[in-house]
Design brief:
This is DUF2007 domain-containing protein. Helices cover about 25% and strands about 25% of the residues. It is of the alpha+beta class and about 100 residues long. The longest helix has 13 residues.
Length: about 100
């Protein structure tokens, strides 16, 4: 696979519309997920291989996929997610 994987900005996942906050390295995405979870925002990570609602630490520690992932939140929680990450729109996200 060459370059970063492509992830759609909006996807239908488990019957709901999810919005991609950013595409970023897995470890950074996991940090954002922790911040968002502490604020009550649900997240899902899309790797080139699968969706991950939960990220077991063992997967990360044992060298699971650590490349770029898409970090998604439910569309209905987008404003909350942006506020928690201190951004007004996805183009202003840290690291974007």
């Amino acid at each position: 696979m060459s370059g970063s994987p492509h992830f759609d900005d909006r996807v239908l996942y488990q019957g709901d519309v999810w919005v991609r906050l950013d595409t970023l390295p897995r470890l950074l995405a996991e940090g954002w997920r922790r911040t968002l979870a502490q604020g009550g925002v649900v997240t899902v990570v899309r790797t080139p291989f699968q969706w991950a609602m939960a990220s077991p630490v063992i997967e990360i520690e044992t060298g699971g996929y650590l490349g770029d992932v898409g970090l998604y939140v439910p569309e209905v929680q987008l404003a909350e997610a942006l506020a928690l990450l201190r951004a007004d729109d996805p183009g202003e996200l840290p690291g974007a």
